[in-house]
Amino acid sequence: MRFLLVNQCFYPDVAATGQYLTDLALELSGRGHKVTVVTSDRGYDDATKRFPHREAWRGIEIIRIRTLSLGKETKWRRALNFGSFLLNCTLRLALLPKFDAVIALTSPPLISLLGALFVRLKGGRFFFWVMDLNPDEAIAAGWLNESSIVARALQAFLRYSLRQAEKVIVLDRFMRQRIIDKGIADRKVVVLPPWALDENVRRDDQGRQSFRQRHGLSESFVVMHAGNHSPCHPLDTLLEAARRLSSEPQIVFCFVGGGSEQHKVTTFAARYDLKNILCLPYQPLAELSGLLSAADLHVVVMGEQFAGIVHPCKVYNILAVGKPFLYIGPAKSHITDIALQQNDVSIYAARHGDVETVAHQILKAASHSSEPTPSIRPFAQTFSRGSLMPVMIDMLGAVSPRSPVPATAVSQTSV
Question: Among 60, 93, 131, 292, which one has the highest count of C-beta atoms within 10 angstroms of its own C-beta?
Answer without folding.
Answer: 292
